[in-house]
Amino acid sequence: MDAVTGLSGLDLLIAIIAALCSGGVITALVQAVFQRGSVRAQAATSIADVAQAVNELNASLRKEIVDLKKELIKLTDAIDNALPTMSPCVPEK
């Protein structure tokens, strides 16, 4: 009886897997599968972080725009109120 025929199916499968692992084929496949998943997870986390930062910046900019509009309205109201008193100082054309 030779070494291959003396092994059961399960023993043969385990021997083949062990041989492949020692050669690094299965190890490389497993690492590639799990590494791809971790790279995707890291990319998703990075994208989520960037999206959150953009949303926060957008909210901040919107608030600043609203504040600037309010101040611009105050300024134009002040100019409108001051113009009648300035008309005697401005020469007519």
List the SSEs and their pairings.
Elements: H1 9-23, H2 25-86
The figure for the number of domains is: 1
Shape: rod-shaped
Low-confidence stretches: none
Task: State the helix count.
Answer: 2
Rg computed from alpha carbons, rounded to a whole number of angstroms: 38 Å
How big a fraction of the residues is strand? under 5%
Describe the structure.
This protein is mainly α and 93 residues long. The protein has one domain (9-80). Helices cover 83% and strands 0% of the residues. It has two helices and no strands. It is rod-shaped.
Summed up:
The protein is mainly α. Helix content is 83%, strand content 0%.
Essential attributes:
mainly alpha, single chain, 93 residues, rod-shaped, 2 helices
